[in-house]
Amino acid sequence: MRDLEAGVFWPAFLSLARFHRVQALVWHCLRTLDVAVPSGAAETLDVEAKRIAATNLRMAVECRRLLESFSERRIPLLFLKGLSVAALAYRDPFLKMSWDIDVLIAPTDLNGASEVLFGDGYQLTTPRRTALPAWHEREKESVWKKMSEGFTLELHTRLADNRRLVPEITTQSPSQDVEIAPGTILPTLGPDELFAYLCVHGASSAWFRLKWVTDLAALLHAQRPQEIGRLYRRSQELGAGRAPAQALLLADALYGTLDSSPGLKGELERGRSNCLLFRAALAELGGQADPVEPTQRALGTATIHWTQLFLRPGIGFKASELARQVRRAFARF
User: Fold this and answer.
1) Is 302 helix (H, G, I), strand (E, B) or coil?
2) What are 142's strand-pairing partners?
3) Which of 3, 48, 85, 165 could disulfide-pair with 160, CB 3.0 to 4.6 Å?
């Protein structure tokens, strides 16, 4: 630990932790390992970790209230990522930073869900002008904000930008209940579906934020090699394409996820496109000493766009993905 204490440039360390949204996880790890942290950096991390925990507590109350509102209207919904993943991955949902609430509904429940959100004080912010049903025909989610509380909610009617990825994962898929706080239980995707979805979600942004792969690695940490292999096979049946291979290779490079699964690792590395996607994601994670959002730097989203073309094999997928990207680019003008 002395090497760590002496070799850290703490201002850059704090900047990276904030960008990757892992301040609370980092502070928990440093305290667990009894690393001596300069007082200024320690105070900053402690304050930010407590702020994350407080925000998550407020978000837990809001999620419980949303679940009650949707249940009253008999609208099935599943909570994605966020507090439910934190509880499964870290056993403590207040360590993981969550800045929004993601929920999945059936497309046929869009009107009812909109009425619930408007009634609960949410405002639709994206789209602003397009009719909501027409928007959801093209896009996977709409964005809502509750100005009085500062909450952002993403209302999903599907899980991937491209309909050919994980098309069969819906609100009717296997699910699991996760207790995020005493007496607060949220429904989320079942283990197989959750693994496939998290891989596709990370791949959709080329894994540029460390938090996403850390969550995935934490979920897989206690799994036996056979179970990781089974999750990978099942993800292929669910239509996740190359995203799980990319995710597993990235998690292994950072956290040794496949140390006890050399056979699976070798299989994944034999895929040239898998390795191409893995190297691109690793470069995104480690390519900047002073990171900024991809949308805020010149050609910052280029890696995201070209890697999305390779998430499933075949010219049909590439054509559909290219058409989607072109349509979205022109929609901005």
Assistant:
1) helix
2) 155
3) 165
